[in-house]
Amino acid sequence: MHSVLLLFTLLTSVFGRNYKAAVVEYSPNVGALGHTVTRDQALELMRSNLVQYQSFVESAKSQQVDIIVFPEYGLNGPNFNQWKDVYPYLEQLPEVGTNPCDTWTNNATQKGREVTFSLSCMAKSWGIWIVANFGDKVKCNSTVSQQQESNEECPPTGYYQYNTQVAFGSDGTLAGKYHKMNLFYEPYFSTPVNQKPQKFTTDFGVTFGMGICFDIMFKTPLYDLHEEGVTDFVFSSWWVNTPPVLTGTVMQQSWSKVTGSNLLASNSGYTWHSSGSGIFNSGSTLTSWYNSNANLQNVSKMLISEVPRISFFLLKK
């Protein structure tokens, strides 16, 4: 009996406790297709979605959730055709390690980065890790763009424009920033060419790989991270369901099974065509949701589950 207790204590200390995760299948307020707006109009739309995000965050925290994941295009929708259409929704994201809620203390420092500031303070206020998706802009010919140049010429806006997943720690710090590498018919976004696969480590002891939608179909970045030993992944998506095989939850569950990984997948609830979210553990469905309503009814829904720890050494047995 003593040996069993000792083994349990050892395993707990090595692998840690389970963590509790939430993914939100969210149907956002979106702008008109191909309609260029002002920054103020774009901000008004994104703030309307941030209000909904906060309600999910508050509910998740009341259920002792450690990390919550929101979908691709969750703050602005995907209704863009050209560079200039998405530009008003973009912000210049700071370097990883910056805490906007603590350091951007006046309107001047927050201006043009209001969404970044709001997400940082939301994470800090509720003491929860938040993963979200919106747009980053990097000025062409800047030091940053030279380090991570795009494979296109500089867009007419004067900025490289990236579909971006962000992770904010429970203290509000920007812990992760990832530019989508595999775009899916998104001519208004740039493709980074020098970016390495991105990951972040939480204060509850789990390292997460980062990925967005179409990335799941490619080796880089998600599978590369898996080969490095990452066992947990946050996945923001606005999937295009193509039955019977290429549906959101089928792809998510199969990827989790093939890699033996934990996958926290947040998808759009805009219609059945883009629905399908879940939390998967080595291919086992811990929780999932699909909006099967054929009448194009929008649905927003939060899924919560305890997530078991996975040992990379067990994956390699």
Write a concise synopsis of the structure shown.
This protein is of the alpha/beta class. It has helices at 2-15, 39-62, 83-86, 100-103, 107-110, 114-126, 143-147, 219-228, 248-259, 312-315, and strands at 19-25, 67-69, 129-139, 159-168, 174-179, 199-201, 207-212, 232-236, 262-266, 277-281, 284-289, 301-307. It starts with a helix and ends with a helix.
Could you describe the 3D structure shown?
The chain has ten helices and twelve strands. Strand 6 and strand 7 (207-212) form a beta hairpin. Strands 5-4-3-2-1-12 form a six-stranded mixed β-sheet. The protein has a six-stranded mixed β-sheet with strand order 6-7-8-9-10-11, covered by helices on one side. Helix 2 runs parallel beside helix 6. By secondary structure, it is α/β, with parallel strands linked by helices. It is 30% helix and 23% strand. It has helices spanning 2-15, 39-62, 83-86, 100-103, 107-110, 114-126, 143-147, 219-228, 248-259, 312-315, and strands at residues 19-25, 67-69, 129-139, 159-168, 174-179, 199-201, 207-212, 232-236, 262-266, 277-281, 284-289, 301-307.
Q: Helical element count?
A: 10
Class derived from helix and strand content? alpha/beta
Share of residues in helices:
25-40%
Low-pLDDT parts are 4-14
Return the average pLDDT rounded to an integer: 90
Please report the distance between the alpha carbons of the first and last residues.
27 Å
> How big is the Rg?
19 Å
Strand-residue proportion: 15-25%
Structure summary, number of beta strands: 12
Order of helices and strands: HEHEHHHHEHEEEEHEHEEEEH
